[in-house]
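Response to reviewer comment R2.3. The reviewers asked that we include at least one raw input/output pair. We reproduce the pair for Hypoxanthine phosphoribosyltransferase here without editing.
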Amino acid sequence: MKLEIEGLEFEPFIAADEIAKRVRVMGAQLNIDYAHTRPVIIGVLNGSFMFIADLIKQITIPCEVTFTKLASYYGGLSSTQKIREDIDISVNIEGRDIILVEDIVETGNTLNYLIEKLQVRKPASIAICSLLSKPAAHDERPAELKYIGFEIGNDYVVGYGLDYQELGRNLKEIYRKV
Ligand code: IMP
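Raw output as returned:
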């Protein structure tokens, strides 16, 4: 069923069971790839909160979980070059294997900014795990973008953590703008 958020119309796009199935596969892959180490999983708030909660329930290897908070949209429909950092990472990541968990990669600016900042702290490795990716919108695909749930077109999406003007994060499924 279609829904309206702040005057815009959205239609169902990715169902909750489809998301759950994909998240299980992504978690299983991380269990294999990081079996030899104890990764630090960094959730990039706000949009990734639902994805990271479901994803880490699928992780069976020892791991640490922490968060950082960045914002690049400021309520509009397209990401801006300006990134605001609200919460910094508090753990020492030197020599550690990092998995950055994002909701969606659009231009890639947010992640490139974050990666540059993290590299200074000398982690052993950085990989990005994003639920969604909009390849046609990438300025430059971050080399670290290794795990992707769904590649989508240049649609604006809400739900499962993603918002439009701070609304829609609570939806169980993903909707796209009509
Ligand atoms: P980027 O820096 O252009 O890659 O933008 C990434 C950030 O913009 C994401 O972490 C989201 O917060 C936001 N974003 C990008 N596309 C969408 C969308 O379709 N819906 C909601 N937020 C989005």
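The two ends are 12 Å apart (CA to CA). Strands lie at 3-5, 8-14, 40-45, 64-71, 84-87, 97-105, 125-133, 145-151, 157-158, 174-177. Further pairs are available on request from the corresponding author.
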